[in-house]
Design a protein that fits this description.
heterodimer; A: alpha+beta; five-stranded antiparallel β-sheet; 9 helices; rod-shaped; B: alpha/beta; five-stranded mixed β-sheet; 4 helices; globular
Amino acid sequence: MTRTGRLGPALGYLSAVAALVVFILAAFSIRNAVDRNLTFQRELRLAQVDRARLLRFQIDEETGVRGYTDTRMPLFLAPYTAALHTFDPTSAQLGQRLPRLGVDEAPLRGEIDVNQRWLRTVAAPLIRNPGSHELVATQVEGKRLVDQFRANDLILDNELDVAADIAEASTARAVSETLIGAIVLGVVLAGLLTWLSASQRRLAFEVELQRQAYLDEKRIADALQEAFLQKSLPEVARAELHAVYVPAGRESRVGGDWYDAFELSEDRILFSIGDVAGHGIEAAVVMSRVRQALLSVGIDESDPAAVLSRANEILLMQDGTIVTAICGVIDLARGVIRLANAGHPPALIRLADGKIETIGATGPPLGALYNPAYTVASALIVPGSLLALYTDGLVEYGRDWDQGERRLLDALRALPADAVDPADALMHEIFGSEAPLDDVAILTVRFREGLSDAATELAAVRARPILSRNLHTLLVSAPPMLTVRID
Amino acid sequence: MDPCVNDERFQIAGFSGEIDFTTREELRTKLAPLSEAQAPIVDLSAVTYMDSSALAEILYVQRGRDRSGRTRVWVVASPAVRRLFEAAGLNDVLSVATTLDEAKASS
């Protein structure tokens, strides 16, 4: 469609130029034909004049000789002498014209031959001996030759007329053929132009329709997304929450990414982040259902694994699509993060010294299985550390997961400890001014000083925030996930 | 994408290159016969990239089979696909094989 779109105007211009060229060529061609005909007709007229003069010369010569033989007065020989001098140049001139006109030279050659024979066998003897006893016989011979001359002249005259007719007819034909050709070509080109411009308009109309349909869908999906995005994150004393949501650079993709954080009590924050497979309104609707399920179950259920299991059941009941998500609770009083993971990229913690840990919890995506097993992983909160949750758009850099994860880890490590908005800083660190390939949601939680005594004590005992199973029965830490390297 | 192959008792749907939301309809069409097949195999050994919507289509088939008590779908996974499965915690959901022969032998 795009190709035709670009080809259309080009063909249109080409047709217009071609039409112009055709008409200019036709005009020149007609002018040339008419010119050629004019030249031909002029040449023909001159040939006719030459032919007439040759006949007159022959008659003049004959009349002169006859007058002389009758009167014996040299006076009568004057036209004969004059014609004698002009016959040859004129016949030579006509001899040159005839081939140019395409007329047979045989009659002319006949005339020249007859004229010479007449000079030799009639004129010369009569002038030499006007009173000859053979006078009558010679005069009869002269009459015969002059008749032959006239016969040749008639043929030549006729041939010149025929040539004139042919030339005129061929000129007329050339002109009309050129005109018809030009008109036909012009009509074809005009038709082509009309067709092109019509198809161009149709194309533009279709593109506009598609664009409108897309814009409508995008507007609805954007409105849903906007409505779903949490306007304000919980504000608590000992933690700072930040979040960003950046839609995909590719226009047609409105995704099903989300983040949520709610204050359950003064010290407890329920959070989730997730990604619905697919895009558009359908994904946005599924997203709203899953979030609602996670929130309504999460308010009463303190076990994140159970929350995910319930959400999975709800999703399966509605035969929805596949959703990856992390759901968890930040307990600031106990200084503990507990979370469960349904096929989502792992949560990361950046320590104050720049080290990065993953909170390893595994489980299948929501909506994939009937009885999935989710595990709960926990991490101890230490002051100055940063919890980072994100959707896979953040690591889907150029479709190379390894590279994407490296970039994420590098960016997280390089993040300034005092960044005003760590989520935004992380986004900027990874994508700069580029738009991501897929939607990206990031939720960060920065833990401040002034945590509970228990948490501070534990943190003092262990330099690392990840608890192993034997430290606390409540806190279960699965091994770090294979997909993220820990330096 | 490669055509569906019905190799004796196996119903095989093979894919190659990048499969993502843009190829979703094709994916859906090719995977449809697998939901009631005797020994379904999804051959992803030539897949270089796969996104979550493509994954969702395969899981959808598996889900349907689970519900009706049918055997699992065997998936032949390239290293890239295997990574995705691990990241998405799917190793317990799908039966993953390295080669088509392995998948046939196991199903």
